[in-house]
Structures are given as C-alpha cells and as structure tokens.
C-alpha cells in the first residue's frame, strides 16, 4: 500500500488507489491471474455504477488518453 500512496501523492491523484493484495477484487471482475498477479485490465464504471467499458490486457502507451476520452463521452449525471 505504501507504493500506492506514494504514486498517488507524486501524481496528485484526487482519488484513493486500492491494492488487491489477495486477488479478491480481480476474481469478482473475472480478471484472470497468472502466478498470483492479475492481468492489467481497466474498467470504466459509469455514474450509474454500471461497467461502461473494459480495456483488457492494457498497454501503457495511449491508454490514459483512451480512458479519458471514454470518460468525457459518458452521459452527464442524471442524464
């Protein structure tokens, strides 16, 4: 968890990061784990609490821009 806190502080993230140390969250989302470490998968959860988009097998290059574009395309709250 310390590495997560440091990363969030270094990047001024306005939200907490979570460490899924036992793989329980990954399992609930159906993310396969190999050798005890889960694949990198991004889930975009809409304002309604429903998964809006999934990026399996995330590659770092261009990923943040793709996720940000998808977030900006979400319908407004209450709409």
Short description:
This protein is α+β, with helices and mostly antiparallel strands and 79 residues long. The protein has three helices and four strands, in the order ααββββα. The model has no long low-confidence stretch (mean pLDDT 86).
Give keywords.
79 residues, 3 helices, globular, two-stranded antiparallel ribbon
Work out the helicity level.
Answer: 25-40%
Number of strands: 4
Low-confidence stretches: none
Gross morphology: globular
Question: Could you give a short account of the major beta sheet?
Answer: 2 strands, antiparallel
Q: Let me know the average pLDDT.
A: 86
- The succession of helices and strands, N to C, reads HHEEEEH
The structural domain count equals 1
How far the N terminus sits from the C terminus, by CA atoms, comes to 36 Å
Count up the helices.
3
Overview of this structure, please?
This protein is α+β, with helices and mostly antiparallel strands. The chain has one domain (23-79). It is built from three helices and four strands. The strands form two sheets. The chain has a two-stranded antiparallel ribbon with strand order 1-2. It is globular. 0% of the residues are buried. The mean pLDDT is 86.
SSE order and pairing:
Layout: H1 2-10, H2 24-28, E1 33-34, E2 37-38, E3 42-45, E4 51-55, H3 63-73
Antiparallel strand pairs: 1-2, 3-4
